[in-house]
Specification:
This protein is 33% helix and 35% strand. With 105 residues, it is α+β, with helices and mostly antiparallel strands. Strand 4 and strand 5 form a beta hairpin. It is globular and about 35 Å long. The N and C termini lie far apart (34 Å). 20% of the residues are buried.
Length: 105
C-alpha cells in the first residue's frame, strides 16, 4: 500500500472513531499532487457543542519536532481550539495496535 493509501486509511479510522464519540467530522481534501490540510497543519477537524478539535493524523511514526512546535505555536494564537496528534500504530511494527495521542491543551 502506498504512503498516501496508509494515510487515507488512518484518517478514515480517526474519522470513524470521532463520529462514534458524537463529533461532526470533516477531513482535509486531496487534489492531485497537493494536500489541503486545515491551516497547513491538521488532517481532521471535529466539532460538537463546546469543542472544536483539530487532529494531525500519522501512521506508525511520531512526527518531528517542527510539527510539534508548529502546533504549539498555533495553540498559543488560538487557545479556544483543541489540537492533537494521533498516531495509528500497526501491530507488526510496534508490537501493539491502536492510537497514540498527544494533546495540546
Amino acid at each position: 500500500m502506498s504512503s498516501r493509501g496508509k494515510g487515507n486509511a488512518s484518517e478514515l479510522k480517526c474519522q470513524k472513531f470521532l463520529e462514534a464519540e458524537g463529533f461532526l467530522v470533516q477531513r482535509a481534501g486531496y487534489r492531485r499532487f497537493q494536500q489541503n490540510d486545515f491551516f497547513n497543519l491538521f488532517d481532521v477537524m471535529a466539532i460538537k457543542p463546546g469543542i472544536t478539535l483539530f487532529v494531525q493524523v500519522k501512521t506508525n511514526a511520531k512526527p518531528g519536532r517542527k510539527v510539534f512546535q508548529d502546533i504549539a505555536d498555533f495553540m498559543q494564537k488560538y487557545p479556544q481550539f483543541d489540537a492533537e496528534i494521533w498516531i495509528w500504530c500497526e501491530k507488526r511494527r510496534t508490537g501493539r495496535t491502536g492510537w497514540r495521542k498527544f494533546q495540546f491543551n
